[in-house]
């Protein structure tokens, strides 16, 4: 039986809000004001004048060599040691994870964090079987529960994790758990799929799991938050060359990573424009996260986890967040009820909401949180 995905909670919310003027605390898009429009415009002009029509030819599987070289240098800038590993360019992290799910988890069991990001998990759900959920706490995935599963004889092909600025919880996995997880992947022969799109905007992302075991970890990077999600460029990095070759062959299924966008990103990386924006990005989102946290406290709303950075906070609204949503939308604010991010822990999550600090300004974030509070009071 094929496990076709339902619409993710984020997609279904954006359908409900399309065309409505509400404060958007729902979308995981980066802040539009941080997209380097002038530099992107300049890079398109430069690429078209240099390559002409060739910039619009088929890209070929696995990515353009010049971009792959730039991505390796970028990895160094964000603290990911890429030497000796292979890069496969993909259409964003989402595409990378779909290809990895085909490569390692098709028809096989897999494990993932609970909660997690349902849009990426959908590929595992569609292709894999018998998922095992590992709850998270303020230090990331609770690995003792993963170990208990192994001691009961369970085997997994893959463990999908978001160790930095988790979506939706906002936490970072602790350093000791990262090295422990890398060791478990070696000892138990599974691929750790390390989904790391928030590293470029995280103030202290720490060492990736990948750095402890580049052969058993498939590192997934993205330029959606550091440059622009519409370019649709991400990558897989692994020292498991057999896996990298397989992902590259699978990329022939769609050839979807645009040639011109690869050339444009390559120019942007080469010019230093992207690495120069790292510090401003990190302090910008840190400021917005603080504005959101302060406003939640002022309104007597609790955080489920203290976020380490990134775009998301998980707030406990103290009432059913799914039922409250229509009232919040009428008040003029959108959030995503967190229930859809949970598998096993659904009962406790009914009051939780994922709030995003991406598209809204600091003032809008504060207004949005006050409107949520008003909707809660209307309800009581
Ligand atoms: C954890 C996580 N993984 C992957 C993605 C998708 O990233 P991309 O735009 O590179 O496909 C997102 C997007 O919000 C995300 O939050």
Structure description:
β10 and β11 form a beta hairpin. This protein folds into two domains: 130 residues, Aspartate Aminotransferase, domain 1, CATH 3.90.1150; 237 residues, 3-Layer(aba) Sandwich (Aspartate Aminotransferase, domain 2), CATH 3.40.640. It contains 13 helices and 14 strands. 42% of the residues lie in helices and 16% in strands. The strands form three sheets. Strands 2-9-8-7-6-3-4-5 form an eight-stranded mixed beta sheet, sandwiched between helices. It is of the alpha/beta class and 380 residues long. The protein starts with 8 loop residues before the first helix and ends with a helix. The longest helix has 21 residues. Pyridoxal-5'-phosphate binds next to α4.
What's this, in brief?
This protein is α/β, with parallel strands linked by helices and 380 residues long. Helix content is 42%, strand content 16%. It has 2 domains: 9-35 and 277-379, Alpha-Beta Complex (Aspartate Aminotransferase, domain 1), CATH 3.90.1150.10; 37-273, Aspartate Aminotransferase, domain 2.
Q: Using the coordinates above, name the CATH class of the largest domain.
A: Alpha Beta
* Overall pLDDT metric: 95
CATH H-level superfamily of the largest domain: Type I PLP-dependent aspartate aminotransferase-like (Major domain)
Bound compounds: pyridoxal-5'-phosphate
First-last Cα distance:
44 Å
Low-confidence stretches: none
Number of self-contained structural domains: 2
Number of helices in the DSSP assignment? 13
CATH fold name of the largest domain:
Aspartate Aminotransferase, domain 2
Rounded radius of gyration (Å): 20 Å
> How much of the residues is beta strand, in percent?
15-25%
Order of helices and strands: HEHHEHEHEEHEHEEEHHHHEEHEEEH
Do you know the CATH architecture of the largest domain? 3-Layer(aba) Sandwich
Quickly give the structural class: alpha/beta
The general outline is globular
Largest sheet: 8 strands, mixed
**What percentage of residues falls in helices of 4 or more residues?**
40-55%
> What topology, given as strand order, has the largest sheet?
2-9-8-7-6-3-4-5
User: How many strands appear in the DSSP assignment?
Assistant: 14
